[in-house]
Design brief:
The protein is of the alpha+beta class and 70 residues long. It is built from one helix and four strands; from the N terminus they run E-E-H-E-E. The chain has a four-stranded antiparallel sheet, with helices on one face.
Length: 70
Amino acid sequence: MGCNCGGRGGGRATRPGAAGTVWRHTDKYGGRVDYASESSARVAQRARGGTIAQIDPRTGATITPNAKGR
């Protein structure tokens, strides 16, 4: 059994947050992880860098680009 130690591909799908959206953190290597809350995505961003954006989990489309995360 492997170790799920985070990093690229270490995330797991979350249930949609408010209004059926999720927050996606994209790290500097292109790894993407979805979070149910903005605060959780911000924690990952502070730890690993990269950007965050609010997305529709069904389509993967960005709902509101987050300029603070750039």
